[in-house]
YXWGXW repeat-containing protein (Variovorax defluvii), 138 residues
Amino acid sequence: MKKLAISLAVGAASLLSLGAAVTLPTTAQAQPAVIIKTPPPPPRSERVPPPRRGYAWAPGHWEWRSGRHVWVAGHWVRARPGYAYRAPEWRERDGRWEYNRGRWDRDRDGVPNRMDRDRDGDGVPNRYDNRPNNPNRS
């Protein structure tokens, strides 16, 4: 019985030490870049729903999955005060296409200023809003 207990203790210690050596990816780690030779199809036309207070619109875009382009429909994402949402995009570099995932960017100095205000309440800071004073928005 003592040998069994010692074996189990050694086995558990081995598993714990192995677990410490294995790292799981976190959201803070950089995502792997997607670089392909095939250009994405043209963006699809989609109807943007009325603004939602406290949310930012993430427009539809093409993603590369399982060796082909797949359309991902636009959707609302919860707004982050002091940040501006950057939509996903494809950029061509030297005949290759690189996909940049959507992300939240902090203001340069990290402090919201008057240009970061959202006068019309659509979740888009004025500096990034094409129509910051749209009277038709609630």
The helical segments are 2-21. The chain has a mean pLDDT of 74. The chain has one domain: 32-128. The CA atoms of residues 62 and 93 lie 17 Å apart.
